Amino acid sequence: METKKKIKIKSDNKLKKDVLPSEKWLVSFKNHNNTRGVIPRVIIRQFYAQGYYEAYDIIRTYAEKLALEIIWFKEKRNCSHLFISKKFPQLESICVYCNRIFNELDPIPCLQEDCIHIFCSRKCLESHIILRHRSTK
Questions:
Q1: Mapping DSSP to helix (H, G, I), strand (E, B) and coil, where does residue 32 land?
Q2: Which range of residues forms the domain containing residue 101?
Q3: Which of 45, 48, 60, 85 has the largest count of CB atoms under 10 Å?
């Protein structure tokens, strides 16, 4: 009986080794379709991926969909201390109010200083402010 238990434990350990944890990655894009000026705008986003190749696939798909140029991407823990301590918007964000996934380059942040939520439209932002921030005052 003891040998069967040891075999089960060994097989469980193999499954745990195959599962890679998700790491936080940073990516920088250059937007050549900038309507605000002549100089292309640089965008930094964060996302989760299990490894280099999965991160590359996610970034490449996103860049092709929105016609962006990839400048660099790196695991956040291997970046400079200036990037590690700062929060960046997610690559594909979820609107807190309507729960819709959106890929906007400029997500709309909440106007309150202590609120970190982002929204897909001004309508969702206004509804959030009315329901969340005006009712607490």
A1: coil
A2: 93-137
A3: 45
